[in-house]
DNA sequence: TGACTTTATTTGATCGATCAAACTTTTCTT
DNA sequence: AAGAAAAGTTTGATCGATCAAATAAAGTCA
């Protein structure tokens, strides 16, 4: 025994066979108690650690999940995915799963990577983020029978209930509905919304949350509501511009809700009246400047992803399709309320 | 051939032996050109992909590097490590290396993970972040002959030139020196510095950059300089407090430099005089609010790390110790100057 | 007790690739 | 052109674990 100890070494030391050692590690139940203890002692004694690659070669599974690390975009909202990655890694670790990162320049390139990692038995499955309508990646994975779970629901028409597409998502509707309610309960009537142009899966959901809550209360007529809504692309300066426009055209404002923290930060900058502003994503920026925000609860998302991936359907996408356990999780976000602290700022 | 094609399948198809196929992939030089083409055609034809785990079992190397994903701290500065991770993954991918994530609850736990991943042939080496004085991790890795590179120089007394400790770091001194110079060139004389308590490896470096630049110019006496310096722990509100204190006790302020973007953001909040504030890390927050900041150039850091890891010394830490190629890289950061945009804000 | 299960353990084969050494072909010497 | 050296290719063994099937031990029942 020159290098690290192997099963054979342990078997020899414990006076049993290789297979028994293997059984102690993988199916302890079928080994008699006293034998098991002897083997466990030998394992400890020799400091034995199973050779992961050898095991993978034989079992054809790697206990590793692959996830693509998206390129950094603006940075503010990008941190949500980073936080998700943290949560995922932490929880995967706790289950003995490893997380392998990779990058890709396009969806097609990403598919190439899927193939490479899957064929090499590098990973057992994938976690996808940033899904979009007509996403070729999910189609390819399904066609090739590779396990995966998406963070983000499928936005295609009839994909939502595709039994082969497991997904976890955050209920943006509920998030904005709650945020709107919170402002209403605090006495606000005229609550504006700065959102993204349609069609945008997530954006439309969030907008609807605000819209429904407003309509339910009925404080504002439908026509007035239209004046309280502004559509713009994401970004801090866009938020500032939108807020300026609202102040000029929307009449009195009791509160402003935004589709993202970037927009919210921008809105705060042009907010001398100190109207309460609420963002979305609860990014570090929101925490730093004391901005209320809707928190996506990445921990719960990560838990859901792993649950689906390793659960009844997870080992293999095609496993046990007859069961009727739900194939997705819709997480309700949490509203984080912060004092309207060191803000507002003045436009120079 | 039921499953995926193997070397044997390719060999059969190309009319050569397994080993020749293997040679085509690993040492193309020793295979005759026409044979090689035939094999390559067969590989393409069959869509053959080598089985990563099998290869690892045999070669005892994995082409994978492990990196611990630090727990999220405050979030603002934490994004530097996330950006580094992005850069590392991207560049590792380009070199055919994979990045495996893991988490740990303490340095000792991290060492346990090192052992597990190393023994299982899961990784060839590690990238460490957030090193500190007397770090047990580097000692353990050196003692066990495991390859690693740290992002962050060793802070122990005589470790800096330890030939077994490869490291890459950003020259904080140069960063603050340049930032100070930039303000001086713009006409500023009385430049304050908000930093961290000593001893702090990185913090002390940065402070010294400011201090040296101030002394070189000689606009301010040493006693006055002491009044222009404030020491505090990191955080947005600490930055606000420090700025308030400076305004009360330090006399006229022409500019303020901070050890972090968190402090800088805080400083800006208590900055009605619109004194130029410069942060450190060039985080998304700095970009969003239009704050000048020192950029750590994570791309260069990542390149340096990979270079050291895969280079002459990288394959094995103990490899070729007789060469005199430098065993570390000191990256010069870049000052990112931004207009003092939508800020300042007023304290309510 | 002896035949018959059930439970526990062992043996031989295998996963897919590469290493090391043997072997064959080509190229170089003189 | 014969013999030596170099280049190219093939064969058998091996990495460390698990699977599948065979064997041994323990427990059950008439």
From TrEMBL, chains A, B:
Q: Gene3D superfamilies from the xrefs?
A: 3.40.50.2300, lambda repressor-like DNA-binding domains
Keyword tags: DNA-binding, Transcription, Transcription regulation
Q: Which GO terms describe its molecular function?
A: DNA-binding transcription factor activity; transcription cis-regulatory region binding
PROSITE patterns from the UniProt entry: HTH_LACI_1, HTH_LACI_2
HTH lacI-type domain span = 5-59
DNA damage: is it a keyword of this entry? no
Q: Name one Pfam family in it.
A: LacI
Q: Which InterPro entries match?
A: HTH_LacI, Lambda_DNA-bd_dom_sf, Peripla_BP/Lac1_sug-bd_dom, Peripla_BP_I
Q: Which domain of life is it from?
A: Bacteria
Q: Which residues cross the membrane?
A: none
In its UniProt entry, what is this protein called?
A: LacI family transcriptional regulator
Q: Which organism is it from?
A: Cryobacterium cryoconiti
């Amino acid at each position: 025994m020159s290098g690290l100890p192997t099963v054979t070494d342990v078997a020899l030391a414990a006076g049993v066979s290789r297979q028994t050692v293997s059984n102690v590690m993988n199916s302890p139940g079928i080994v008699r108690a006293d034998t098991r203890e002897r083997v466990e002692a030998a394992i400890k004694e020799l400091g034995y650690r199973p050779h992961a690659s050898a095991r993978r070669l034989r079992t054809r599974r790697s206990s590793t999940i692959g996830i693509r690390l998206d390129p950094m975009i603006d940075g503010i909202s990008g941190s949500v995915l980073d936080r998700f990655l943290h949560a995922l890694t932490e929880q995967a670790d706790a289950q003995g799963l490893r997380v392998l990162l990779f990058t890709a320049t396009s969806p097609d390139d990403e598919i190439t990577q899927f193939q490479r990692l899957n064929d090499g038995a590098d990973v057992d499955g994938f976690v996808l983020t940033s899904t979009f309508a007509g996403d070729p990646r999910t189609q390819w994975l399904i066609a090739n029978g590779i396990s995966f779970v998406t963070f983000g629901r499928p936005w295609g028409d009839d994909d939502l209930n595709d039994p082969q597409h497991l997904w976890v998502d955050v209920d943006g509707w509920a998030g904005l509905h709650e945020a709107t309610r919170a402002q209403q309960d605090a006495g606000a009537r005229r609550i504006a919304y700065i959102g993204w142009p349609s069609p945008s899966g997530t954006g439309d959901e969030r907008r609807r949350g605000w819209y429904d809550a407003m309509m339910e209360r009925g404080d504002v007529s439908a026509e007035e509501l239209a004046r309280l809504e502004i559509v713009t692309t994401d970004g801090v300066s866009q938020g500032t511009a939108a807020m300026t426009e609202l102040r000029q055209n929307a009449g009195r404002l009791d509160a402003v809700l935004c589709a993202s923290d970037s927009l919210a930060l921008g809105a705060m900058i042009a907010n001398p009246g100190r109207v309460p502003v609420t963002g979305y994503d609860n990014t570090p920026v929101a925490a730093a400047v004391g901005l209320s925000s809707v928190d996506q609860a990445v921990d719960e998302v990560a838990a859901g992803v792993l649950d689906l991936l390793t659960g009844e359907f997870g080992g293999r996408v095609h496993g046990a399709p007859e069961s009727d356990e739900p194939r997705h999780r819709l997480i309700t976000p949490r509203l984080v309320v912060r004092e309207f602290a060191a803000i507002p700022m003045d436009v120079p």
